[in-house]
Design brief:
Blueprint: H1 8-50, E1 54-55, E2 74-81, E3 87-94, E4 97-108, E5 113-122, E6 140-148, H2 155-158, E7 164-165, H3 170-174, E8 185-192, H4 212-242
Parallel strand pairs: 1-2, 3-7, 5-8
Antiparallel strand pairs: 2-4, 2-6, 3-4, 4-5, 6-8
Helix pairs in contact: 1-4
Length: 255
């Protein structure tokens, strides 16, 4: 009945379709894994955001990196800002506007400093002038915010150059200051005392599920589609082979 499917041409086509189908299924499963990983991460972040702030040294230290599970923990620290070692993080945008993040070490009573991202300031974006950013509170300051992991970018991105960086690394900033520094940094959400003007505080992370789930469904659909096309062409060839032969008609043209 379908003996023609055992020919080299159809077996080769089936092999190609199978390879495409397997690849699509693997890509779909990968997207589903990404979806579940993001869902688990979002659940952990939501839990941290709902918790009260804890002392910074309960989460961060000078000897070990911030763990992925501790990121976005709400912590509080008290100390004095070291404005002399302030750096600006370039190329930060919000709602389409260009700006910088203002990063200042907060030296605590123990002598260990916490790298604090005080927030975002809009700039002209032309790079020709040094941005004029709001000064932090003087004297003793209490800062509340979210724990973030240091950037793992190359030295050209994280090493301060003329007071600028492209990404925040406590290790790189720590080499420029005369005191120990907690690993990681803090996205500040609140300062006490409050000063005006002040940088725009950190925004909560995007906790949407993202497109991975729907991408996974699309890859599975492509796998089904590949086998569907193969089956359609096989059925078409079978029907054509079973059709009665066409009888030609001889037309005689009178002389």
């Amino acid at each position: 009945m379908f003996r023609f499917l055992l020919t080299r041409r159809w077996l080769g086509l089936l092999l190609a379709v199978t390879l495409v189908g397997v690849a699509c299924v693997e890509l779909g499963l990968w997207q589903f894994r990404r979806f579940h990983e993001r869902s688990d991460s979002n659940a952990s972040i939501r839990s941290h955001l709902a918790e009260s702030a804890v002392p910074v040294d309960e989460v961060m230290s000078t000897t070990s990196a911030v763990s992925e599970s501790d990121e976005w923990t709400n912590v509080v620290a008290t100390g004095r800002y070291d404005v002399a070692h302030q750096v600006l993080v370039l190329y930060r945008t919000r709602q389409g506007s260009v700006g910088v993040d203002v990063v200042v070490p907060l030296v605590t009573a123990s002598g260990t400093a916490l790298v604090v991202d005080r927030g975002w300031v809009q700039t002209a974006g032309n790079g020709n002038e040094r941005p004029d950013v709001p000064a932090p509170p003087t004297g003793q300051v209490t800062v509340t915010g979210w724990v973030r992991r240091s950037s793992t970018g190359d030295s050209g991105q994280v090493s301060p150059s003329d007071g600028f960086v492209r990404a925040i690394s406590s290790d790189a900033i720590g080499t420029t200051v005369p005191y120990a520094v907690f690993d990681g940094f803090l996205d500040a959400t609140k300062e006490d005392p409050v000063v005006t003007p002040a940088p725009a505080p950190a925004e909560a992370p995007d906790l949407s599920s993202g497109p991975s789930f729907f991408y996974g469904l699309q890859w599975f659909f492509f796998a089904v589609l590949a086998f569907g096309f193969w089956a359609y062409f096989a059925w078409s060839e079978y029907r054509e082979s079973q059709a009665p032969p066409r009888i030609g008609m001889k037309i005689t043209v009178p002389e």
